[in-house]
Design goal:
The complex is a heterodimer. Chain A is of the alpha/beta class. Chain A is 27% helix and 23% strand. Chain A has 9 helices and 12 strands. Chain A has an 8-stranded mixed β-sheet, sandwiched between helices. Chain A has a 4-stranded antiparallel β-sheet with strand order 2-1-4-5. Chain A starts with 10 loop residues before the first strand and ends in a 20-residue tail after the last strand. Chain B is an alpha/beta fold. Chain B contains 14 helices and 12 strands. In chain B, helix 7 packs parallel to helix 8. The chains are: A alpha/beta, B alpha/beta. At the A-B interface, helix 6, helix 7 and helix 9 of A face helix 7, helix 8, helix 9, helix 10 and helix 11 of B.
Chain lengths: 342, 344
């Protein structure tokens, strides 16, 4: 599936923020500080596409995913779905909206109610969102959905603990599927699974998407999985999107220095094939005290004076968006040379 | 010397593991969970042990270290380090070997470092347990080690508590701790699994550099075939408590022999190629209780034939540097029992 750029976006995210307040008490009383977990993220999700969000731990990718369903309340910005700002609507309206936007979590051990039978787990959304008029109808529909994710009649009356990790993730997918959503947020859906099982689950999600045409926001730290699964990819670093591009563009030629380092760091399965790896120095700075200017500047091999002072905007360039001072505004003359410092 | 056979000269092989068997003692009958593991680690080389969860790879390494959980027992087997048999050693001698001759690093550094001691104190303790040096000398050594593993401001970090460090830094401290007494064998159990890729790249690079400098042997236990491809010389692949394939690293990736290895390699999305549907291995790993006769992979194997389901395959040598536990490499069995031949 490729992106239909002419289509209306299904979901528009504008300048989304999540700042968690932290207390820092000093001798002279507290000074207000906050962890900027997500700090101004904007992107669109188109119907039927899979948008990948990649980044390392603590970059804010899961926080972003949760805010799209308001499992976490945004502290700023907009999430526009069907002309309405999800961030502003009432809790009651939001609850009904979750029919359209569902989530699959990373840990299939923690995200299923241990006291509910598999059948009940899938029936619940069918009844809640009034998709099925009667219990009997819901039971029939639950059976069909479970069959689609590869679980049979004999599994329906069992409890989650009786299943393996891969099977539990299938149950989680069935539950998300039940409400006939238009968008599924998949937060590290295969990270807890062994590779042979991971492939089964990825294939299942893809074939279901083909059948029903919903969109995915696929959150992952695994760049190989994201490349296999997604159409477009956004790379996050320290609460900000640093590059958003079509998959083939990003993997062929990452532009942001962080995206370059991230891609070069993936171990290849062909011995001796890893060429000029960019090994980044140091660690990700704390989001409570991010560096001035570009968040990546302390570790960036290409940083220059502007980078420590001015926060780069995510701007369009060569058919993608990049937030980096190496690439000034989208004008045909602009090359890769560094702009002179102001 | 990848293939463990008795006619090979002992020189050069630092660690020789033969026919290791680990079991859960149960009233009626012991349940074997690691079954007949043999491998050797030559001096200065890196052996990768690959397998999915439950394959027995971590238990194998704990057995080598002599730190098997109390509810499990070593049913049989021999482990020789530099010719010295470890399985019959006294607890005291074993403890003295641990941390001196052999050391281990774990996946999660936060749970293996003591949270209530400064990192320096932990390294000092490790050094003074095995060497007769003064506290001041040991502290100097601790700072040296922290510098060696690439920790910036080592003189300050030596007085930090583990929680003050990031995940990557903690893993470096773990490595410093493990290498403090310059062991000849380092066992690294998923050393980079809890780390982000950019930090993983740093740690793998560091381990390679230290191996070159200190000349130790490494057993690297991992589920990540990418990490294996980058760091190992030889590889053994484990499935359901057994070694199903062993080979040189280049050969394993270029020409996997066992159908399980092949399936495993195919099911990883490759960053450099594009496929629509990922090949996957159907089904799941059998539980130790449910393993009957026959090849343990047979129920998931696309190439299995009736003979596989009834007879346990031995390890069959495919060539000088590789072997597979698979009937497909026994020409006699194939000729007599494979449907392609029996039908003709």
């Amino acid at each position: 599936m490729t992106t239909t750029t002419t289509a209306e976006p299904l979901l528009q995210v504008r300048n989304l923020q999540k700042h968690f307040p932290i207390k820092k008490s000093t001798l002279f009383g507290g000074q207000k500080q906050s962890v900027k977990a997500v700090d101004g993220v904007s992107f669109d999700v188109y119907p039927g596409e899979s948008l990948g969000i990649v980044g390392e731990s603590g970059c804010g990718k899961s926080t972003t995913g949760r805010m799209l369903l308001r499992l976490l309340e945004p502290t700023g910005g907009e999430v526009i779905y069907q002309g309405r700002d999800i961030a502003q609507i009432s809790a009651g309206e939001m609850r009904m909206l979750r029919k359209d936007i569902q989530i699959v979590f990373q840990d299939p051990f923690a995200s299923l109610n241990p006291r509910m039978r598999v059948r009940q787990i899938v029936e619940e959304p069918l009844m809640n969102f009034r998709i099925c008029a009667s219990r009997k109808e819901a039971r029939q529909r639950a059976r069909e959905i479970l069959e689609q994710v590869g679980l049979g009649e004999n599994h329906m009356e069992r409890f989650p603990h009786e299943f393996s990790g891969g099977q539990r993730q299938r149950i989680g997918i069935a539950r998300a599927l039940a409400s006939e959503p238009k968008l599924i947020i998949a937060d590290e859906p295969v990270s807890a699974l062994d590779v042979s099982i991971q492939a089964q689950v990825l294939n299942l999600m893809k074939s279901l998407q083909k059948e029903y045409g919903f969109s995915f926001v696929f959150i992952s730290h695994d760049l190989s999985v994201v490349k296999h699964f997604c159409d477009r990819i956004g790379v996050m670093y320290l609460g900000k999107l640093v590059e958003v591009a079509e998959k083939k563009d990003l993997y062929a030629k990452p532009m942001h220095p962080y995206a370059q380092a991230l891609l070069s760091a993936i171990p290849r399965t062909v011995p001796g094939s890893t060429k000029q790896r960019i090994v980044l120095q140091g660690d990700v700075p704390s989001p409570a005290n991010p560096p001035a200017g570009c968040p990546f500047n302390p570790r960036c091999p290409a940083a220059f004076s502007d980078c420590t002072e001015i926060v780069p905007e995510l701007i369009s360039r060569e058919g993608r968006q990049v937030a980096c001072h190496l690439y000034p505004a989208d004008d045909p003359q602009a090359g890769q040379q560094q702009p002179t410092a102001v | 010397m990848l293939l463990s056979s008795s006619n090979q000269a002992p020189t050069g092989d630092l660690l020789v593991v033969e026919n290791l068997e680990v079991a859960i003692p149960e009233e009626k009958r012991d349940v074997t969970i690691v079954n007949g593991i043999s491998f050797t680690v030559p001096a200065g080389r890196t052996l990768g042990v690959v397998g999915e969860s439950g394959s027995g790879k971590s238990l194998t390494s704990l057995t080598v270290m002599g730190q098997l959980p109390k509810n499990l027992k070593l049913a049989s087997g021999s482990i020789r380090l530099n010719g010295e048999e470890l399985t019959t050693l006294s607890t005291d001698r074993r403890r003295r070997l641990r941390g001196k001759e052999m050391a281990m690093i774990f996946q999660e550094p936060m749970t293996s470092l003591n949270p209530s001691y400064r990192v320096g104190a932990q390294i000092v303790e490790m050094v003074r347990n095995h060497q007769d040096v003064s506290r001041a000398e040991a502290r100097k050594r601790a700072i040296e080690m922290l510098k060696l593993v690439g920790i910036p401001r080592a003189e300050e970090v030596v007085d930090d508590y583990p929680h003050q460090l990031s995940g990557g830094m903690r893993q470096r401290v773990m490595i410093a701790l493990a290498l403090a007494n310059e062991p000849t064998l380092l066992i690294a159990d998923e050393p980079t699994t809890a780390l982000d890729v950019t930090i993983q790249a740093q740690i793998l690079e560091l381990m390679k550099r230290l191996q070159a400098e200190l000349g130790m042997s490494i057993i690297l236990i991992t589920h990540d075939l990418g990490v294996v491809a980058e760091t190992c010389d030889d590889v053994v692949v484990m499935y359901a408590g057994e070694i199903v394939e062993r080979a040189r690293v280049e050969e394993l990736f270029a020409e996997p022999k066992h159908p399980y290895t092949r399936g495993l390699l195919e099911s990883i999305p490759d960053i450099d190629t594009e496929v629509d549907v990922l090949p996957s291995i159907p089904g799941t790993v059998p539980t130790p209780q449910s393993m009957g006769t026959g090849c343990r992979f047979a129920s998931r194997c696309p190439q299995a034939f009736d003979y596989c389901r009834e007879n346990t395959p031995p390890e069959i040598r495919v060539n000088d540097t590789s072997a597979a536990k698979c009937w497909l490499y026994d020409p006699e069995v194939v000729a007599q029992h494979h449907p392609e031949h029996t039908a003709a």
